[in-house]
């Protein structure tokens, strides 16, 4: 503030004012943030950060709209301004969808329908179509909504999943997808049977001998090379996938399953139940759903126990070393070393412990739990206050500010639905 007062025309003044506004946002001082952002926009309307400032300003009006007449309309106007005047910015697409979602949240379904129908981008096309159906449904246009749901339901993504649920009339009964709590047994361990046709391959024979000697890392290296050489014969691919599943290499099984495609066998191989017994035990110990743990592992590491992320997360459940140290201290784990996170049993134990902690913190609301696992609980603690959370779980998911986290939640929930379908729990465990 002092810098701006003394040198208002300084080249660095815009950045100072913008960051000054962000400080207020970080402190959750909405009124101060709005004043500073409005000042920035008035002073520097053509600045490279103008679209970002407008987006943040609209966000504050939306967040503080409760009991404040005009705030919601101000947010809508600002989102529209971004979409029209800053159409080339990275914020334009999301601003358009935010305006449509806000209209829906306000119960202005005709306006929301018009906005969704008017979407002309590509990034959020399926999202816009799905919510167009939702808005149509709210206005009694059931046949139009069903037509859109049918067109979306042919896919395999999150919006296909939600569309099929609405077509099946399972929206009420499938809310467990968002609020599941408790234990659902995992699938049984795969049978240790390997087709004789596989053992004709020299790499398979070598891997089989190495496994008999307890040399799993060397066996995996052999099998990885073999998998890259496989052709497109679906029978051979299925035999290899069965062998890899039996030998306990779910990551390689998954690779072949993806190649096999959407056939039933391919789908099952594409969603392997690797480390099932250990996951089963950890899920039971921590009150988790084993199917959801499988889905999370599939998304996080593709069942690679040796996986390392660009930011240093490790193991099957991609636990950060610092988080592992905190869990070790809380659970009395002595002589903790980050290298132990590569051990499947340890990685699963630490990951399940962390996941259960978020489940308690966010009241069993799985979208928030998964968002915390990816985007950090400190961020979700802020997003928790969004009114969309109690209004509509799907609307809350699409309100998550970070694209990576928003897509992560959708992907894990979609994969969880696939695991529930492919490995149904016994009736006693439901």
Q: Quickly give the CATH architecture of the largest domain.
A: Orthogonal Bundle
Distance separating the two termini: 59 Å
Low-pLDDT segments, ≥5 res = 181-192
Q: Return the CATH class of the largest domain.
A: Mainly Alpha
Indicate the radius of gyration in whole angstroms. Answer: 25 Å
Verbal overview:
- The chain has 430 residues and is an all-alpha fold.
- The chain folds into three domains: 2-106, Alpha Horseshoe (Serine Threonine Protein Phosphatase 5, Tetratricopeptide repeat); 198-270; 276-429, Orthogonal Bundle (Lysozyme).
- It is built from 25 helices and no strands.
- It has helices spanning 2-6, 13-26, 30-43, 50-63, 71-85, 92-105, 109-117, 125-138, 142-153, 158-167, 176-179, 202-212, 216-229, 234-247, 250-260, 264-270, 276-286, 290-301, 321-331, 344-361, 366-375, 377-383, 388-391, 393-399, 403-422.
- The chain is globular.
- The termini are far apart.
- The model is unreliable at 181-192 (pLDDT under 50).
Key descriptive features of the protein:
430 residues; mainly alpha; Serine Threonine Protein Phosphatase 5, Tetratricopeptide repeat; Lysozyme; globular
Give the arrangement of secondary structure elements.
Blueprint: H1 2-6, H2 13-26, H3 30-43, H4 50-63, H5 71-85, H6 92-105, H7 109-117, H8 125-138, H9 142-153, H10 158-167, H11 176-179, H12 202-212, H13 216-229, H14 234-247, H15 250-260, H16 264-270, H17 276-286, H18 290-301, H19 321-331, H20 344-361, H21 366-375, H22 377-383, H23 388-391, H24 393-399, H25 403-422
């Amino acid at each position: 503030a002092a810098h701006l007062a003394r040198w208002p025309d300084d080249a660095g003044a815009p950045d100072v004012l913008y960051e000054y506004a962000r400080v207020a946002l970080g402190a959750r001082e909405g009124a101060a943030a709005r004043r500073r952002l409005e000042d920035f926009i008035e002073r520097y309307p053509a600045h490279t950060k103008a679209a970002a400032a407008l987006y943040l300003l609209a966000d504050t009006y939306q967040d503080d709209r409760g009991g404040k007449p005009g705030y919601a309309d101000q947010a809508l106007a600002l989102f529209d301004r971004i979409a029209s005047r800053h159409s080339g910015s990275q914020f334009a697409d999301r601003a358009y969808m935010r305006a449509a979602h806000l209209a829906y949240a306000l119960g202005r379904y005709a306006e929301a329908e018009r906005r969704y129908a008017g979407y002309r981008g590509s990034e959020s096309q399926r999202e816009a179509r799905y919510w167009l159906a939702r808005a149509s449904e709210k206005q009694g246009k059931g046949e139009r909504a069903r037509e859109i749901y049918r067109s979306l339901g042919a896919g395999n993504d999150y919006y296909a999943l939600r569309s099929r649920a609405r077509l099946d009339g399972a929206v009420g009964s499938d809310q467990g997808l968002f609020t599941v709590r408790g234990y659902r047994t995992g699938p049984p361990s795969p049978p240790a049977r390997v087709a004789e046709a596989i053992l004709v391959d020299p790499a398979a024979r070598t891997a089989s001998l190495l496994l008999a000697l307890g040399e799993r890392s060397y066996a995996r290296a052999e099998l990885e090379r073999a998998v890259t050489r496989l052709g497109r014969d679906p029978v051979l691919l299925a035999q290899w996938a069965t062998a890899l599943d039996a030998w306990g290499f779910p990551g390689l099984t998954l690779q072949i399953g993806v190649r096999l495609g959407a056939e039933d066998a391919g789908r099952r191989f594409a969603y392997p139940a690797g480390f099932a017994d250990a996951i089963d035990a950890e899920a039971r110990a921590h009150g988790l759903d084993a199917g959801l743990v499988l889905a999370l592992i599939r998304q996080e590491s593709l069942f690679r126990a040796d996986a390392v992320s660009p930011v240093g997360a490790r193991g099957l459940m991609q636990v950060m070393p610092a988080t592992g140290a905190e869990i070790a201290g809380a659970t009395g784990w002595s002589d903790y070393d980050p290298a132990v996170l590569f051990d499947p049993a340890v990685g699963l134990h630490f990951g399940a412990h962390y996941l259960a902690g978020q489940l308690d913190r966010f009241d069993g609301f799985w979208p928030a739990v998964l968002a915390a696992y990816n985007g950090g609980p400190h961020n979700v603690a802020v997003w928790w206050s969004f009114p969309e959370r109690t209004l509509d779980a799907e609307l809350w998911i699409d309100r998550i500010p970070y694209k990576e986290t928003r897509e992560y939640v959708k992907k894990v929930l979609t994969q969880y639905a696939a695991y529930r379908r492919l490995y149904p729990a016994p009736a006693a465990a439901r």
